[in-house]
Specification:
This protein is of the alpha+beta class and 443 residues long. It contains eleven helices and 22 strands. A hairpin with a 7-residue loop joins strand 7 and strand 8.
């Protein structure tokens, strides 16, 4: 189906096309006619406003920017994750999903007119400078962000490699805003990192880009060779503060721990849009115990993996409630005019559970406690707190708020230490082997 693109001069053309349809179609029913007429009137209204602004605004108006802003306004009214990407933003997104791009290394969103940090990416200027989830960026090089679109703000944070930039940050628990000085760099995301913890394989996935599935397989094989396949006690899969990424990579990751069965299903507006994705390739860990670490910064693709392993009783989920982003965005290229990022479906775990605005509830709840560097606990507000978010389809209770703090020093990381202790004593923990829900206090 050919998709129409609304750009600059095309407004009048689109309205005319709808007019032709209304007069030339003979077989449509009354309801369809009424709907078409309403759409025609609204597009005529938009065209009238656009022409009035272009003709009479106090200063000359860039028609392309005005229409782009109108498109963004329409998409922003749908949900927090639908947006329009102009050609430059589309190219930047394609580069980022390939795992290498220029900038500071932070996943961000827009909230109340300022940029909000979702999570800094490991080993980037942002993480080394100490930026944290839930930080608000109010100024870039002393100039306020208020009034900019998210795309504009991101563009200002990007720039030539090795050039300096100063971000003004507001952080909960700090009385005053403070400046963070960074230097831009080429951000090469190696999305999978791993090392051994004695006879335990520790694997951290920071995002789901095009390389993630292959890198995970490599990590598992190298850990088995290093430890000895027969000696591996289990694996810790760390998805904390992982904001998600590509759906096919989430399926690939889940498949590496499950022999067979469903990983995730997606359901769109129409019944025929339902898609089911099953495991393929077999369990590379040969049935060894798995613990998945999640927290308030674990979103989207991270939740798909955690939900699949939890439903198959293949892993124990440990940490705090995840973010709760249970929607799927499709990137629809618009030729030379960029692309549309549109929410097209909700996703469901193998048991049919939607985590939209609810998150994944861990089997074992372990809280890290307070970050000693700030006065108050750091909480990720979660999908349920984002303005305009999709409500849970089943009408269930929305839940928001979860710890996102991960200590830099392993000795202070209560979640990781608890997971290591479980795997080292796994035969003494019937609750872990059976996958029964457990709550544990971390003192």
């Amino acid at each position: 189906m050919k998709k129409s693109v609304l750009t600059g001069f095309a407004v009048g053309t689109l309205v005319s096309a709808l007019t032709m349809f209304a007069f030339q179609s003979d077989g449509f029913d009354t309801a369809a006619h009424a709907s078409g007429s309403d759409t025609y009137r609204q597009l005529t209204l938009f065209s009238d406003v656009f022409e009035r602004v272009r003709a009479d605004y106090v200063e000359p108006v860039d028609s392309e920017k005005a229409v782009e802003a109108a498109i963004n306004g329409m998409l922003a009214s749908l949900d927090p994750h639908s947006s329009y990407m102009n050609p430059k933003s589309f190219r930047d997104m394609q580069v980022q999903t390939r795992g290498e791009f220029g900038g500071l290394g932070i996943e961000v969103t827009m909230e109340n007119g300022v940029v909000k940090v979702v999570t800094p990416i490991d080993d980037t200027p942002a993480s080394r400078a100490g930026l944290r989830p839930n930080d608000y960026i109010t100024h870039i090089d002393g100039k306020p962000i208020l009034g900019l679109t998210l795309s504009d703000a991101v563009d200002k944070m990007r720039g030539p490699v090795d050039t300096p930039i100063t971000l003004t940050v507001v952080r909960k628990g700090r009385d005053e805003p403070f400046d963070v000085k960074l230097k831009r760099a080429v951000i090469t995301i190696k999305s999978v990192k791993y090392h051994r913890e004695g006879d335990i394989g520790y694997i951290r996935i920071t995002s789901f880009n095009e390389q993630t599935g292959d890198l995970l397989e490599e990590a598992i094989h190298k850990l088995q060779n290093e430890i000895g396949a027969a000696k591996v006690k289990g694996y810790i899969l760390d998805l904390r503060n992982n904001p998600g990424g590509l759906l096919d990579q989430a399926i690939a990751v889940g498949s590496d721990f499950i022999d067979e069965g469903e990983i995730v299903s997606t359901r769109g507006r129409h019944p025929e849009d339902t898609q089911r994705y099953n495991a393929s390739g077999g369990d590379l860990t040969h049935g060894r115990p798995v613990i998945v670490l999640v927290n308030g910064g674990s979103a989207s693709a991270s939740e798909i993996v955690a939900g699949a392993l939890q439903d198959h009783r293949r892993a124990t989920i440990l940490g705090t409630r995840s973010f709760g982003k249970g929607s799927v965005q499709t990137i629809i290229p618009l030729g030379a005019d960029g692309a549309l990022r549109l929410t097209t479906a909700r996703y469901y775990t193998p048991s049919g559970h939607s985590i939209q605005a609810k998150g994944i509830q861990p089997d074992i709840k372990i809280e890290q406690g307070e970050d000693p560097n700030i006065k108050k606990r750091t909480l990720i507000t979660g999908e349920a707190e984002l303005p305009g978010h999709l409500a849970p389809e089943d009408g269930g209770k929305e839940v928001a708020g979860s710890d996102s703090y991960v200590p830099a020093d392993k000795k202070d990381d209560k979640q990781l230490l608890y997971a290591i202790a479980l795997l080292n004593g796994v035969q003494k923990n019937a609750h872990f082997l059976s996958g029964q829900a457990t709550t544990a206090a971390a003192n």
